[in-house]
Write a structure and sequence with these properties.
Order of helices and strands: HEHEHEHHHHEEHHH
Number of strands: 5
Oligomer: single chain
CATH class of the largest domain: Alpha Beta
CATH topology of the largest domain: D-Maltodextrin-Binding Protein, domain 2
Structural class: mainly alpha
Strand order of the largest sheet: 2-1-3
Largest sheet: 3 strands, parallel
Distance between the termini: 47 Å
Mean pLDDT: 83
Number of domains: 2
Radius of gyration: 21 Å
Helix content: 40-55%
Low-confidence stretches: 1-19
Strand content: 5-15%
Number of helices: 10
Shape: elongated
CATH superfamily of the largest domain: Periplasmic binding protein-like II
């Protein structure tokens, strides 16, 4: 049987492959302590079904390094069994005809009724399920150091971009770094998205 790449929906790939393989190779970028612990839940569940999980973690770039690894594997004709992917990456791979049709599994477990319509847009292509979500999150989030905010005199949580800038200026004047991130392209894009949403609105 032709080996195909199964898109992002690791859980769906597991269930499908359990019928045909005694082991599956899973390429992902969940490599931090908390991420690895979450992934281990999926791994344990799969192994209870009698299928061995072969881990292929690729750290770095919020998934960019993993996508580079996927392209290399697919190009060489040796794709992994399952891959963690995001949003439009899933659709792009489906257009290349390398993702497995998961409709039978989706019908069996009622995905059309349980998966939100907004998420289905990135899980289906041409009416076929090609991925199943195992993690959903937004990019417009931020972590704050309450101790630093208190020392800077920021007593209320900013509710708008303007209030955020005012709070950041107080933090900077107090001698702290107001905004910090790793400087990677995906992080720059996340900040840009948040600024656009805050200043321009969702429309």
């Amino acid at each position: 049987m032709k080996k195909q790449l199964i898109g992002a929906a690791i859980a769906a790939a597991f269930t499908l492959c359990a019928h045909a393989h005694q082991s599956v190779e899973v390429l992902h970028w969940w490599t931090s302590g908390g991420e690895a612990a979450a992934l281990n839940v999926l791994k344990t569940n799969l192994e209870k079904q009698g299928v061995k999980w072969n881990d292929m973690p690729v750290a770095g770039g919020g998934g960019e390094a993993a996508m580079t690894a996927v392209r290399a594997r697919v190009t060489s004709g040796n794709p992994p069994t399952a891959v963690q992917m995001l949003g439009f990456d899933i659709i792009d791979w489906s257009k290349q005809g390398v993702l497995v049709d998961l409709n039978a599994l989706a019908a069996k477990d009622g995905w059309d009724k349980t998966v939100p319509a907004a998420v289905q847009k990135f899980s289906k292509f041409n009416g076929k399920w090609i991925a199943a979500p195992v993690n959903i999150h937004s990019t417009n989030w931020i972590w704050a150091n309450k101790e630093v905010l208190a020392k800077a005199g920021v007593t209320t949580e900013p509710k708008s971009f303007e209030e955020f800038i005012a709070a950041a200026e107080k933090v900077q004047k107090a001698g702290f770094v107001a905004i910090a991130h790793g400087g990677q392209p995906w992080q720059e894009a996340t900040i840009f998205d948040s600024v656009v949403l805050s200043t321009g609105g969702v429309d």
